[in-house]
Design a protein that fits this description.
- With 126 residues, this protein is mainly alpha-helical.
- It has 5 helices and 2 strands; from the N terminus they run E-E-H-H-H-H-H.
- It has a two-stranded antiparallel ribbon.
- Strand 1 and strand 2 form a beta hairpin.
- The longest helix has 50 residues.
- It is elongated and about 70 Å long.
Length: 126
């Protein structure tokens, strides 16, 4: 038996006598349910990213505003980096584009590509 997905063909039945039919059937089901699992997981990630983006954008803008007022005394850059990473992962997954994130967060494309919250702060201070 052959199963194909995109341009990949997987041979599921080994040569006769090397593996019982029940083992071949289990391998087939693992393969099929693996594909279903991946598509479900992808849908869950995209749904999460899209539903939380407005709140995360507001929090990131708030962090940037507080950090610019505090200057070098800002004591929580890790939370700002976590919010930035959220948007970078959303871009990487295809949930939204760099331009959409730049518009939502008021970051420039160069700041996003820098991938560093502290770098963004230093760039805005100096």
């Amino acid at each position: 038996m052959h199963v194909g997905s995109a341009l990949t063909i997987v041979r599921l039945d080994p040569p006769v006598g090397s593996q019982p039919a029940s083992a071949r059937r289990r391998a087939f089901y693992r393969l099929i349910f693996g594909f279903v699992h991946l598509s479900t997981r992808f849908a869950a990630v995209i749904t999460f990213v899209l539903t939380a983006r407005a709140a995360a954008a507001g929090r990131l803008r708030g962090f940037l505003a507080k950090a610019s007022r505090a200057g070098d005394a800002f004591d929580d850059p890790h939370a700002g980096q976590a919010l930035l990473n959220y948007f970078l992962r959303g871009i990487a997954s295809g949930a939204f584009t760099e331009a959409e994130v730049a518009e939502m967060t008021e970051l420039t494309a160069e700041e996003l590509r820098g991938r560093s919250f502290v770098g963004i702060l230093h760039g805005r201070q100096g």
